[in-house]
Amino acid sequence: MEINKNQRVLLSVLAHPDDESFGMGGTLAKYAQAGTEVHLICATRGEAGEVDPEYLEGFSSIGQLRESELYCAVEKLGIKEVHLLDYRDSGMTGSADNNNPVALVNAPINQVAEEIAELIRRIKPQVIITFDPVGGYRHPDHIYIHKAATKAFYLAGDPSYKSSYPPHSPGKLYYHTISRRFIRFNVRLLKLLGKDPSKYGKNKDIDLTQMAVDGFPVHARINYSEYKDKKAAAASCHASQGGHGLTRRVMRWLAWLMGARSVDQFMQAFPEPNTGDQVISDLFTGI
User: Fold this and answer.
1) E strand or H helix at 14
2) Considering only CA atoms, which of 237, 271, 236, 240 is closest in space to residue 252?
3) Statement: the pTM of the whole predicted model exceeds 0.90
4) ∠ CA 3-8-10 to the nearest 5 degrees?
5) Cβ count near 217 (within 10 Å)
6) Residue 182: count of CB within 10 angstroms of its CB
7) Residue 140, preceding bond cis, omega within 30 degrees?
8) 238-251 exposure pattern, b = at least 16 Cβ within 10 A, e = fewer
9) Of 20, 63, 155, 265, which residue is 20 to 30 A from 181 by alpha carbon distance?
10) Is the CB of residue 193 less than 8 Å from the CB of residue 186?
């Protein structure tokens, strides 16, 4: 493959359909609209997601439905290509889906890392973004992909690793992080409302109190205010997962209230930033 050295290429490595929209969708849309070639690796089809029966009309399975929603979303965001790894959604910690032999978390980490590294060598991104070390909210698949993507980042540039493509060393690796200030605010608010913040979400399987103490440095903040409508349109594609429901509207309002509206934040994992470096506004700074 011939490389256009002037073409910026961004690769996002995630776990499920909707991760690209509900999480870093604003950043992906912003770069795509600016002419960056944006790719997405999605490890599963989200088979463990809960879906109301009406959304399954015309689909043979939850995985088929959610894959369709994924392709709708990537079109809204402007993503050039989706690369599905064909593992099964592992579900939240403690669910029966954890034990499925083809679940992502049961795959050998080296195997998954090599699949991602092969794609990195083919796509040749300058920048890769994935989940933070706790997967945002401690979803097992998110944590697994964080580890596999990090391993693949270095493997792709290792000349001793032989594959179908020559070595490629991306310039930067970032981890997407959630504002802990925002999480702590939600913990306090839920307590005031008489709710248990350790059992948050539709299935009561997200512990906001634990998320509130997870802390990571922020090295980049991407303001996507001009593209927030594209992120919202992509989120709406994931209707089966609440992309158009009241809960999402409330969460967007709370994010705005806390000053986090239309901003994604990232921790720089490679190269290691210098202490005291200013927070940057472009993931490609220095490349």
Assistant:
1) strand 9-14
2) 236
3) no
4) 105
5) 14
6) 18
7) no
8) bbbbbbeeeebeee
9) 20
10) no
The per-residue DSSP string of 39-77 comes to: EEEEEE--TTS---GGGGTT-SSHHHHHHHHHHHHHHHH
With a CB cutoff of 8 Å and minimum separation 6, the contacts of 97 are: 47, 48, 88, 89, 90, 91, 103
**Burial, 151: exposed, middle or buried (Cβ in 10 Å; 0-12, 13-18, 19+)?**
middle
Copy the structure tokens of residue 240.
Answer: 């089966």
- The enclosing H or E element of 111 equals helix 109-123
pLDDT tens by residue, the chain, 287 residues: 445 568 999 999 999 999 999 999 999 999 999 999 999 999 999 999 889 999 999 999 999 999 999 999 999 999 999 999 999 999 988 889 999 999 999 999 999 999 999 999 999 999 999 999 998 878 899 999 999 999 999 999 999 999 999 999 999 999 999 876 776 777 777 777 788 777 766 555 566 776 666 678 999 999 999 999 999 999 999 999 875 543 444 445 445 444 456 899 999 999 999 877 899 999 999 99
